[in-house]
Specification:
The chain is mainly α. It is 84% helix and 0% strand. It contains 9 helices and no strands. The longest helix is centred in the middle third of the chain and has 31 residues. The protein starts with a helix and ends with a helix.
């Protein structure tokens, strides 16, 4: 199932491009679409040779991709409601997450397990749990803030591209720190993902340069005649 999660991350990119166009009205250039396709191929190449695919896994992988894409789009649209303040949106997101997850904690029966654990191991376990919860909550808050800031300053598609490159970094850290195996398929996937990320960066940089170019060019004979008249007036003033 861990490898199917990687496939799901690969499907996030095309879904994000589709939803960004349908919900935000943000079309993507051919170069951007090509970069997204290369990144998707990188995920696909890296995991398909190692996965025993199940129907349930594929279904939940696709659902996960859709919800992740929609979440990024909703963040982009919601920033307008909080005056583009990422920190305010993070607070709202955490509050809503707390309200949504609290009933699940009771329905799953975790409360009874926690009480039983405390009665057996004592209050020291609670202190350890509280410390771990505070540490993970703090860093989770920072991760959320960084993601929201990135979406607010760029786009949901850019956020997903950077997430794909981050996945490559995680794979390399796992290789050096935990001696994980990098097969030929994974290596090919890493190369494709990095290549797609580089292509996307170049495509977005090219779009920004094109937008920065001056747009006024004399296109009619009247514009040319006006320029000539202006030159004649300046010459007469100079002779006087």
């Amino acid at each position: 199932m861990g490898q199917l999660e990687n496939i799901a991350r690969g499907l996030v990119l095309p879904f994000t491009v589709i939803f960004a166009y349908c919900l935000l009205g943000q079309p993507s250039s051919k170069l951007v679409l090509s970069a997204c396709f290369v990144v998707f191929c990188g995920f696909y190449t890296g995991v398909t040779s190692e996965v025993n695919v199940s129907t349930r896994g594929v279904f939940f992988g696709i659902v996960s991709s859709i919800t992740t894409s929609v979440h990024a789009i909703v963040i982009k649209k919601s920033l307008v409601a909080v005056n583009n303040s990422s920190i305010d949106l993070v607070y709202y997101n955490n509050i809503l997450s707390f309200l949504a997850c609290t009933p699940i904690v009771f329905m799953s029966g975790e409360i009874s397990e926690v009480i039983e654990k405390l009665s057996v191991d004592g209050i020291e376990v609670f202190y350890s749990f509280l410390f771990a919860a505070l540490v993970t909550g703090f860093f989770g808050f920072l991760v959320n803030l960084a993601g929201f800031l990135q979406i607010s300053k760029t786009s949901p598609t850019t956020h997903m591209i950077s997430g794909a490159v981050r996945g490559v970094l995680q794979t390399l850290i796992g290789y050096f720190a935990f001696n994980d195996t990098i097969t030929t398929g994974r290596l090919a996937g890493i190369v494709l993902i990095l290549g797609g990320g580089a292509l996307y960066t170049w495509a977005k940089d090219k779009e920004m340069q094109d937008k920065a170019k001056p747009t006024y060019i004399p296109m009619t004979q009247q514009d040319v005649d006006n320029d000539d008249d202006g030159d004649d007036e300046r010459n007469q003033v100079g002779k006087a």
